[in-house]
Amino acid sequence: MIVKSFPRNGMGSNCYVVLDDSQRHAVVVDPSFSYDRVVALLGFTPDFQGILLTHGHADHMLSLKNWRESTGASVMIGRADAYALDDPEASCASLLGLGNRRFGEPDVRLSDGEEIAVGSERLRVISTPGHTSGSLCYYCTGHLLSGDTLFASGGIGRSDLFGGDESALHASVARLMKLPRDTVVYPGHGPETTIGNEICFHRYFH
Ligand SMILES: [Zn+2]
Q1: Where are the domains positioned within the chain?
Q2: What is the pLDDT of residues 26-57, one digit of tens each?
Q3: To the nearest whole number, what is the mean pLDDT of the chain?
Q4: 25 alpha carbon to ligand 1 midpoint, in Å?
Q5: For the structural domain made of 2-205, what CATH number should be given?
Q6: Cα gap 156→179, rounded to integer Å
Q7: Whole-prediction pTM value?
Q8: Which residues are found with C-beta within 5 Å of the ion, ligand 1?
Q9: DSSP string, 62-108
Q10: CA of residue 131 to ligand 1 center, whole Å
Q11: How many CA atoms lie within 13 A of 185 on its CB side?
């Protein structure tokens, strides 16, 4: 698998494209950048097989409708966050200055351990509640898309927003620390890191 980063939209969130090794098939994760902009920066147009959300916060899905219209791909989100797309309080839309903006209905409600096809390869869903109740990470060997659960340099997500749970977040981070140390972590905000870099910050969760 290959991960391409599209960092820091106007609200500071990162968008990622995960490609299979042939680069013919892909999914987008947290579509905060428009489809046209991402394709222009990629320089080619893969077959997008899914629009994946790490959680239901508005700053991670600013271009969700645009991606849905442009690709026709299914929108996938954690089961417990599915309602947030149509709930401006749960999505923090109003908090982020987006008023009553709504994002429609997801097509697929994901649970822990499910696998998402990217060509002939697979991304695995890891349920990581705490930042929101339905927060997910997406994993394949060597890569972890960590949403707002885990950030670089010891950062973890806020747990004081709608649906947040501090002890659940700590348990989720502890679970991620069991992944191989050379796994590259692609957070929802800020720079990339690795599990090996982060493990020293999170020993107290063990
Ligand atoms: Zn968030």
Answers
A1: 2-205
A2: 999 999 999 999 999 999 999 999 999 999 99
A3: 95
A4: 27
A5: 3.60.15.10
A6: 16
A7: 0.96
A8: 57, 148
A9: TTHHHHHHHH-PPEEEEGGGGGGGG-TTTTTTTTTT-TT------SE
A10: 7
A11: 30
